[in-house]
């Protein structure tokens, strides 16, 4: 299976000079807390520096012509953190949208939010909606923000939506295709991630893009997210470019 622009009409074809550059890179931005603790700082300082690393990453992705980046900025499991940390992260998202939205819009970035909005504070939900609405027609980098996101909950929402279509007679169970499921997910219309980068040494997916990651390449690095910079990004991309993706087939040399 290859990701073709035809399957995902909303996303324009890559303008990158390198054919091997991933179209879509997803980030599990891990290690903010450990970065701060190692320096004797409060965990919130790690998140603050994490936002700086995120800004660098967005700029670099736009500069080198990546089509889509997805960032795991708050998982549905993160509500179990201490209330002070949760409210700091909510405030950080608010500040990020308020301060960076006009710059992102000017840079032709299209923002899309994935995750559940039903239990978000109304102020935050409307800010996220505003960011999506303002940038809807932009044609540059697609910035997908996974906020209050969990992949199993996303699959459940999609399953319910398809079940409703069956119930109303618009869809027959036997006619449901993999493409229907992809379309019903929050990421409908976007290409699947080619590369998923996780910082800070943990090697797991943590309920992130479970359906979409079927053929993703994974890259794990030891750096904590606040230390992730252009050089670290390039290293991950070079590593990706050296891999051969077979999608369950055979190496060309073996045929
Ligand atoms: C994981 O590190 C990081 C998060 C849960 C939040 C990610 C947030 C940012 C990178 C800042 C930008 C945020 C927004 C909302 C735009 P951790 O706290 O789990 O680190 P640890 O595993 O070392 O404790």
From TrEMBL:
| Enzyme Commission code(s) on record | 2.5.1.-
Q: What residues sit in the active site?
A: 30, 78
User: What superkingdom heads the lineage?
Assistant: Bacteria
Q: How is the cofactor bound?
A: Binds 2 magnesium ions per subunit.
Keyword Membrane recorded: no
Keywords for this protein:
Magnesium, Metal-binding, Transferase
Task: Tell me which PROSITE patterns the record gives.
Answer: UPP_SYNTHASE
Coiled-coil intervals, chain numbering? none
A single Gene Ontology molecular function, please?
transferase activity
Q: Which cofactor does it need?
A: Mg(2+)
- Residues bound to substrate: 31-35, 43, 47, 75-77, 79, 81, 198, 204-206
Which Pfam families does the record cross-reference, listed alphabetically? Prenyltransf
Q: Where does Mg(2+) bind?
A: 30, 217
Subunit structure of this entry? Answer: Homodimer.
Q: What does this protein do?
A: Catalyzes the condensation of isopentenyl diphosphate (IPP) with allylic pyrophosphates generating different type of terpenoids.
Which NCBIfam families does the UniProt record give? Answer: PRK14830.1, PRK14834.1, uppS
The similarity comment for this entry is: Belongs to the UPP synthase family.
Q: What is this protein called?
A: Isoprenyl transferase
Please report the organism this UniProt entry assigns to the protein. Answer: Roseibium salinum
């Amino acid at each position: 299976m290859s990701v073709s622009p035809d399957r995902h009409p909303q996303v324009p074809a890559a303008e990158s000079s390198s054919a091997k550059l991933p179209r879509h890179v997803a980030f599990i931005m891990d290690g903010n807390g450990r970065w701060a603790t190692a320096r004797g700082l409060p965990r919130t300082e790690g998140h603050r520096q994490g936002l700086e690393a995120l800004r660098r990453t967005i700029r670099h992705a736009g500069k080198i012509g990546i089509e889509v980046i997805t960032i795991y900025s708050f998982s549905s499991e993160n509500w179990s953190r201490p209330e002070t940390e949760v409210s700091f992260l909510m405030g950080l998202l608010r500040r990020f949208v308020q301060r960076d939205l006009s710059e992102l819009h000017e840079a032709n970035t299209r923002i899309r939010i994935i995750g559940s909005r039903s239990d978000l504070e109304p102020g935050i939900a409307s800010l996220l909606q505003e960011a999506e609405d303002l940038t809807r027609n932009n044609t540059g980098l697609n910035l997908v923000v996974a906020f209050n996101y969990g992949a199993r909950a996303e699959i459940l929402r999609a399953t319910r939506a398809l079940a409703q279509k069956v119930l109303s007679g618009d869809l027959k169970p036997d006619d449901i295709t993999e493409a229907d499921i992809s379309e019903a997910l929050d990421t409908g219309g976007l290409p699947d991630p080619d590369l998923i980068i996780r910082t800070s040494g943990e090697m797991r997916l943590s309920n992130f893009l479970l359906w979409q990651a079927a053929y993703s390449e994974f890259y794990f690095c030891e750096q904590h997210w606040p230390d992730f910079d252009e050089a670290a990004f390039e290293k991950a991309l070079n590593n990706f470019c050296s891999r051969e993706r077979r999608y369950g087939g055979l190496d060309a040399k073996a045929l």
